[in-house]
Amino acid sequence: MPARRAADGPDARTLDVAVSAGGVTLPGELVMPARATGLVVFVHGSGSSRFSPRNRFVAGLLNDGGLATLVFDLLTPAEHRIDEQTAELRFDIDLLARRTIGTIDWLGPEPGVAGLRLGLFGASTGAAAALAAAAARPDRVAAVVSRGGRPDLAMPALPRVRAPTLLIVGGLDAPVIGMNRCAAARLAAEWRLEIVPGATHLFEEPGKLEQLAVLARDWFTRHL
User: Fold this and answer.
1) Residue 167 — φ and ψ, nearest 5°?
2) Domain limits at 119?
3) How many domains does the chain have?
4) CB-based burial of residue 2 (10 Å sphere; 0-12 exposed, 13-18 middle, 19+ buried)?
């Protein structure tokens, strides 16, 4: 797994934040490059957290490209402990979407980010939450990227998504490729399906996560 690129320095600053969303407080990390051209919120899934090395690596590459990033926990510590035992909350798309929408609303008046166009990067079940949030906040979300995602879990919301959407799936992740194709057919917005050859669900193969990160960076740079 590649290490996350350093974000702090003369051209970027890292802030620990407490996101107020849906009646709970969620810890996160906001990285603000100088003269940021957009802000990408990471929506993890499948039992992950803000410490996901994959999301943090992708966030680092986005920061290098001039994009601010918010990587945060969708579940409270108590909820995370429950989910580790039952795996039930990671599939509660309504809950995850509400938390994502709450985070978008919380970001609205925040100094330094209020004027930035917003993108959502969703992974696994978090992709469904990201798309549901994009459908609920079409005036705020300007682009969506899904990494090995389950957009099929947000089928009712997909026709209402207005943000250009990039679906990235590993070439060896056959079941998820099919799920993404079915979901894409429901999207009314601009969309593209990118299949990374030789990659499995978690993009663990050498060089595959870098390919995914470049695809995501280029999509967000174009639309944000």
Assistant:
1) -105, 120
2) 12-223
3) 1
4) middle
> Does residue 3 belong to any structural domain of this protein?
no
- Is 6 among the domain residues? no
Q: Residue 70 pLDDT > 80, yes or no?
A: yes
Where are the alpha helices (H) located in the chain, listed in sequence order? 53-64, 77-86, 93-107, 125-136, 174-184, 208-223
CATH number, domain containing residue 199: 3.40.50.1820
- In angstroms, the CA 17 to CA 160 distance is 30
- Alpha-carbon span 76 to 170, nearest angstrom: 30
Give the residue with greater pLDDT, 49 vs 134.
Answer: 134
Give 8-16 contacts, CB < 8 A, sequence gap 24+.
10/34, 12/63
Its pTM stands at 0.91
Q: What pairs with residue 201 in β-bridges?
A: none
Residue 48 in this model has a pLDDT that exceeds 80: no
| Residue partners of 203: CB distance under 8 A and separation at least 6 | 54, 147, 148, 170, 196, 209, 211, 212
Contact 144, 122 (CB under 8 A): yes
Phi and psi angles of residue 142, each rounded to the nearest 5 degrees, phi first: -105, -10
Contact between 50 and 29 under an 8 Å Cβ cutoff? The reply is yes
* DSSP conformation letters of 89-142: GGG-HHHHHHHHHHHHHHHTT-TTTTTS-EEEEEETHHHHHHHHHHHH-TTTEE
What is the pLDDT confidence band of residue 3, given thresholds at 50, 70 and 90?
Answer: very low
